[in-house]
Amino acid sequence: MEFIYVGIVVFLFALSTFDLFVGVSNDAVNFLGSAIGSKVARFKTILLVAAVGIFVGATTSDGMMDIARHGIFRPEFFTFEEVMCIFLAVVASDVILLDLFNTLGMPTSTTVSMVFELLGGSTALAMMKMLHDPTLTYAGLINTDKAFSVILAIFLSVAIAFVFGTIVQWIARVVFTFNYVKHLKYTIGIFGGLSITSIAYFLMVKGLGKASFMTPEITAWINAHTHIILLSFVIGFSFLMQVLHWCKVNVFKIIVLFGTFSLAMAFAGNDLVNFIGVTLAGLSSYQDFVAHPGASPSTYLMGVLNEPAGTPIYFLVGAGLIMTTALITSKKAQNVVKTSVDLSRQNAGDEMFGSSRFARRLVRAVLTAAEYVVAHVPVCVKNWINSRFNQDETILPNGAAFDLVRASVNLVLAGLLIVVGTSLKLPLSTTYVAFMVGMGSSLADRAWGRESAVFRVTGVVSVIGGWFMTAGAAFFLCFIVTLLVHFGGVVAMILLIVLVVVMLFNNNRSYKKRMAATQRDEVFTEMMQTHDKDAAWTLLSKHVCNNQARMVHFIGEAYQQITQGLVDEDVRLLRRTMNSLDDEKKNWKVLRRKELLGLRKIDQLQAVEKNTWFHLASNSCEQSLYCLKRMCEPTLEHVDNNFNPMPKEYVDEFTPINEGVKKLINGVGDMIERNNFENAIQMRAFGDEMKTQLSQLRKIQQDRIRQGDISNLKIEFLYLSTLQETQELIGHMRHWVRACRRFQQ
Length: 745
Known about the structure:
Radius of gyration: 31 Å
Largest sheet: none
Number of domains: 2
Order of helices and strands: HHHHHHHHHHHHHHHHHHHHHHHHH
Helix content: over 70%
Distance between the termini: 78 Å
Strand content: under 5%
Number of strands: 0
Number of helices: 25
């Protein structure tokens, strides 16, 4: 049996390697969001700074592995077989869960996932042990304090970080304004000194506080002289920052890059246990077991895990190298960072989250309260504050989501809050604090306008909900997996290993396909960044033309698939078409929101003129999708229930109509794609001919229904409905051509 456990240990290391990749991909938002969002430097430079921070943090950490060994369960009551079962279930569940969140582009907490996976797995086996031994209690087997502290961390981090982020950013904006370059003469030195001091203190407490070279004597000396150290830092760094400003050095860039390095280092040092702690605990368990020949896996207790973890340096260096590589190469990391940056960006853009009832009610309540407060503020004060928040003076690098002032506040405040929380023994999470500070600062910067507030609140609520879902999903997933492995034995372990590999492979394959299908909209990005109204119109025209042409061709393909599925009784083809229609409907709403934002970027008079034709074209597209859905639903139901097929007579008379519709839709799509409407009149005339033919066929079919066999009424009415919807679709195509032509003129 020993070789089985050797294989489990090897598999734990393999999964931990992958876990390091997915964990870094998810937690990258903690330290990359502000730097990437503000375009403080080239992307490669930002990654290099963060990578160095991660490597230093990982290699200087003591690993903080004790939480995985005995922080959740009491190992002296669990056998070697049981702890290996728990560790295998925890690592497998963690990899699957984090990879899922990365694929969805949702930031979550690796600490929450690891803690609740350990809690779920150990709870499953604790229940089994209590059933066999009534003297055992849950409190005696499981340490629940850690789990409660993690839940408390979510609530505290969300509330504290958001409130302080809003307040501090509001003060910073009042001081510096959006045109911060004009207001640096007397303030940048003090601001830079306080910022660098805060980050340096954070680095000492969180980044280096648990480092292997931090002896108790050094720690005690720092604690005894904290006030003197901080005062010296403030004075020294303030003078240095002022001198650098006189030397034309951008102090804000120094703050952001130093903050990025510090947060990356603290992340690696403190969260390393989330990725390799369980695996190293499994290795220690195996080494202790094999050191006692003749011991039985089912009876040998693992009290050895109560001893402090001594993590070899080569494990830390290896983990640091893997984490650094993951940060540089992971596309999913960029996807997760994009979610945070998009929710906090200053300008309008693509809103990836929809609307929710809670968000709508919350925004409405806040607006009502804000109107009441504003009404009681003196006019002179109101005007002065508005002058400090003049967004027309915003200094944004090309492609930046927000400026360097906000990026600096995000990083400084996140580090400071975490340090204060540590000092006050408040379990604040790095992930939660970094994210919510960014949300609070964006609110203070008036980035959440009325046009986007509901969508962004929905996004924030979705992310926060995801944190709680992580806890629940981690607990129950690991609980179930642990029980399956416990009762299934070696066979279940092998099947679990195979299942994890297959799931990860399929998940990454589907992710690549989805990313390929939803490539970055470069035209829209460029349109949102330009301030030239003529350039904005050129880009908007191109964006509308490309998307309208693509949608016309999609509708043509979907129509052919529906009719082909009806004739051939191909239920799989109809199901795929139904799913694609639903996806395109959602995608079209996103595209329409983007183009409405583009209309606001062009000349106002031109926007008024183009608005009517834009909406007519948009409505034609939407109605065409609804038309196809009305065709597909009854067709799928008919074929799926194995009702009577379409008679050959109907197929023969419908084939020319089908070919004509194909010719019409392809012609419309080509005209829009080329932006050449010379044949628009002829194409509309051809559409009229098709509608006339369909009217004649409808009359013929109605006569057949009146005179035909009632046993075939289902296919009779389905054919009639297909003719009606086809006629409706042709009408939408005629309106579509006219609207696109007038819009592009």
